[in-house]
Amino acid sequence: MKPLIFALSLVLALGALSTQTPDWQPSPGHTQVPIWPERVPDPQPVAGPEVAKTTGKEFLVAGRPAVGVRNVSRPTMTVYSPNGKNTGAAVVVFPGGGYQDLAIDLEGTEVCDWLTPKGITCVLMT
C-alpha cells in the first residue's frame, strides 16, 4: 500500500511541475542576450519566478488572447533582424509593464513583426 501511495504522490508532483508556465522565450531565429551577463546591478525583489501567461476568454484583445510576462528579474534584449532589404534603421521596443507584467505580444513581438518586413531592425527589451 505504501509504494502505491508513494507512486501516486510522485505522479501528481511531476504533473504539477509540467503545468507550470516557463519564462518567456522568443520564437526561433531571434537572438536573445541578457542585458547584464553577470549580476544585475541594484536588483529589486520580485514576487516569484518569471512566468509567461496567456489570457483566457476573460481578457481578449481584438478577439485574441494576450501574452503577459511577470516577475522579470534578468532583463534581456532580443534582436529581430529585418526581412529582405536592411534599411539601416533600428527601433528599441519597451513593452508596457515595467518588468511587473509586460504586454509581450501586443506591445512587443507584434511591433517587431510589423517593423521587420519594412527593413527595420527591432530590439525588444524584456
Describe this structure in words.
This protein is an alpha+beta fold. It has two helices and nine strands; from the N terminus they run αββββββββαβ. It has helices at 2-18, 105-115; strands at 31-34, 51-54, 60-61, 64-65, 67-70, 76-80, 90-93, 101-102, 121-125.
Question: What is the compact description of this entry?
Answer:
By secondary structure, the chain is of the alpha+beta class.
Core attributes:
126 residues, alpha+beta, four-stranded mixed β-sheet, three-stranded antiparallel β-sheet, 2 helices, flat
- The backbone outline, from C-alpha atoms, is flat
Name the poorly predicted regions.
1-20
Sequence of secondary-structure elements: HEEEEEEEEHE
Number of distinct helices: 2
Cross-sheet strand order for the largest sheet: 1-6-9-7
What structural category arises from helix and sheet content? alpha+beta
- Largest sheet report: 4 strands, mixed
Q: What is the percent of helical residues?
A: 10-25%
Strand content: 25-35%
Q: Radius of gyration over alpha carbons? A: 19 Å
